């Protein structure tokens, strides 16, 4: 006889599970942010005068920021496409723990190369390969963790996203500490890249601790049990094309789904139970991908356009903006006004959506305002970007650049968060997973398009 009592939900003592998911969110975006924020170190090694005649004419232009952005985002797009093939065939533990181990090893390699003299072309090739593989594992890690956190209450998804939102701030602060230490460039770079090694190791240990916690185990086991019940339900329902459209309802089929008491004493399943089960499953029949896309295409366009605009100029253009003031501020200008400011305001824009959601998802103003963000591209290109070849400098003062960056980054976080929040609200609850997967794909598409566009924009400047 089936028991009607529900297992009592345990409490998250000391918010340990919340802290772990915050660290997991932080760990997913550490690779992208640490490589992006360290662009000055990489450009200095690639643009040193050891090769050639040491003049601007004798230097080879590597366009590191552009290639770094492109090779960071392409793996995300690729593994989003491979998501349905890769994930069912590899266990969650292997995907998450394995990805973290490989990311840790690649960070160790990057830290080691700081101390190794290397010819510039070879250093560029090794760095680009490292960026490709570290972000490939990062894409697998991110997709797997999104699926994991979805098994817990909704507030843990917010905690996970907060961790992701502060990953860039963490990297920028680490860079500021490296600069403030006043160590030589090599020692500062070594200390900087040791930081994500420690961060990734802490993330790995946090993940391994998760199944040992009663609160996490309650929801993870519950999610696994629900998937098993859905599999059992699909086996109990009549197969298409069976005789009479119903199959043998009285056959010796074992039953473990509690829907009243569907099991007969002989181990078979009653017709009434089948009818109830078939109605329940029919109500939850998922729409096709195309049907879901027709409902969310405006939000898909918005998230793609927002990231296309953002990645086309950040960091490829913004990292080359120079301060008009000489002295110590020159060393802090890019880390503070480009990276730290962007990440803080992007996080602020995402956070504001919990208090304000305007325009509404049905409003035509939403896509209009998203498209109007394209104005930030010429505004940032006309700041004091050096070196430049074609366009004049119109906004050369630091304050103007900072003001533009505040609006640029806050609007990016705000509209991205709204787009990702609105999309699942436009479809039936059982189509929410499909809508989320589609939005993740278009998010990755926007990142890749922006990274590709950055090459053209940097040449125009």
Structure description:
67% of the residues lie in helices and 0% in strands. The protein contains 18 helices and no strands. The chain has helices at 16-28, 30-37, 39-46, 64-81, 83-86, 92-113, 120-149, 154-165, 167-180, 185-209, 214-236, 271-283, 289-313, 329-352, 365-372, 376-381, 398-425, 432-460. The radius of gyration is 26 Å and the shape is globular. It starts with 15 loop residues before the first helix and ends with a helix. Pfam families: Nucleoside_tran (PF01733). Keywords: Membrane, Transmembrane, Transmembrane helix, Transport. The chain crosses the membrane at residues 12-35, 67-87, 94-116, 122-152, 159-180, 192-210, 296-317, 364-381, 401-423, 435-460.
CATH domain topology of the largest domain: Growth Hormone, Chain: A
- Radius of gyration, in angstroms, nearest whole number: 26 Å
Describe the main β-sheet briefly.
none
CATH architecture term of the largest domain: Up-down Bundle
